[in-house]
Write a structure and sequence with these properties.
Length: 185
């Protein structure tokens, strides 16, 4: 073997480790490890991100509904907010149209005869009742659940006037009692 190499110096040179082979191997190995770590980190970040719900907790809960003059006396249904706004002269209140059973939108049905009732210590004209098309829950005009699977009354939400442009504003994160009224000056 050695004699072969002696006879053929080129083969001997090719079989010897060349300067730089080791460092190239090291470099390629480090490159491979680096790429692996980068891919792993990317996957970890993606899986952690998937655990975070894709919602914004900063979504505004106050919604401008329009000028008070946009609301006729009686009931106006706002489909986007799923809200009934009632006006009686200068007095307003709002009742949610979201059924308290499983969240379907209830529909308002006008009563054949308007009733006035004492609700939470204040007189209230009851002009409608609310019916849920999903499982048949029924609510009185003030939102009190009277039959069906609905476990509690429809929510009432706080109304106010926007200081900048005078629009009616509802705060859908602020339920209020059934004695709430916004009375304009
Ligand atoms: S969602 Fe209204 S009764 Fe079930």
């Amino acid at each position: 073997m050695n004699s072969d190499l002696e006879k053929n110096p080129e083969a001997a040179a090719a079989s010897e480790p060349r300067a730089g082979d080791g460092s190239r191997r090291d470099f390629l190995m480090k490159l491979g490890i680096g790429a692996g770590i980068t891919a792993l980190a990317g996957q970890t970040v993606a899986s952690l991100r998937s655990l975070v719900p894709n919602v914004s907790y900063d979504a505004p809960t106050t919604v401008k509904l329009g000028l008070p003059t946009d609301f006729p006396d009686g009931l106006k249904f706002l489909p986007n907010e799923r809200l009934f706004v009632f006006r009686e002269g200068k007095t307003f209140h709002s009742i949610s149209a979201v059924c308290t059973h499983l969240g379907c939108t209830v529909r308002a049905e006008a009563l054949s005869k308007v009733e006035t009732e004492d609700v939470s210590g204040k007189s209230l004209r009851l002009t409608h009742r609310y019916l849920c098309p999903c499982h048949g829950s029924e609510y009185k005009g003030d939102g009190t659940n009277v039959s069906g699977p609905a476990p509690k009354p429809l929510e009432w939400y706080e109304l106010s006037l926007a200081p900048d442009d005078g629009q009616l504003v509802v705060d859908l994160a602020k339920p209020v009692g059934h004695d709430f009224r916004l009375t304009l000056a």
